[in-house]
Specification:
By secondary structure, the chain is an alpha/beta fold. It has a single domain (29-170), classed as Rossmann fold (3-Layer(aba) Sandwich), CATH 3.40.50.620. Helix content is 46%, strand content 9%. It has helices at 27-44, 59-69, 85-98, 120-129, 141-156, 160-170; strands at residues 16-18, 23-25, 52-54, 78-80, 107-108, 111-112. The termini are far apart.
């Protein structure tokens, strides 16, 4: 982080740059943006006031879900999968590149993935601000290669992964 940058919203010291939004954000506005996005995902799929079972598909994703909904964790209820943006982008890209059948769905009969548009980098940065360590998921060699390719696209065109996931949603891939 560049310590000379200020929040695009309030002018306070920035702690995170959102390339997709093209904004520097202070701690308060970064956290607010991230939590609002996940709550919006939940509301758009009419998932409110329920208890949840947290899936452990993605370590940092699970920690974020536990942080957000810890008071609603239960041994029964709707399952919240912990897949993140990268997981879905990899799945869609593998479908196009290798004709691999998609192995992830955002909405399933028994659960929902509310982090489909939240990157691991955002989750890890969120926890760093909370002074907590979280681990990135370890992926297979093929998935790592696809993620490296996607990361290069993301550098040149911020929001590329989100756009890919949106295409996957529209085409019913994920």
């Amino acid at each position: 982080m560049d310590s000379d940058k200020s929040c695009s919203i309030c002018g306070k010291k920035a702690v995170f740059y959102s390339a997709y939004l093209k904004q520097w954000l202070c701690k308060k506005h970064f956290e607010r943006m991230l939590l609002k996005r996940v709550r919006s995902n939940m509301n758009s799929h009419e998932i409110r006031d329920k208890s949840f079972i947290f899936g452990d598909e993605n370590k940092c994703g699970k920690e974020f879900l536990k942080f957000m909904f810890n008071d609603r964790e239960s041994s029964h209820g709707e399952k919240l999968y912990s897949y993140t943006l990268e997981d879905f982008a990899i799945s869609v890209m593998k479908f196009f590149l290798f004709h691999d059948p998609p192995n992830k769905k955002i909405e399933q009969k028994n659960g929902f993935s509310p982090l489909f548009n939240v990157s691991e980098n955002e989750v890890i940065s969120f926890f760093k601000l909370k002074k907590r360590d979280v681990e990135k998921i370890s992926r297979s060699g093929k998935d790592e290669s696809v993620l490296k390719f996607l990361s290069e696209i993301e550098e040149r065109r911020p929001g590329g992964m989100i756009s890919l996931v949106k295409v996957g949603i529209k085409l019913g891939i994920i």
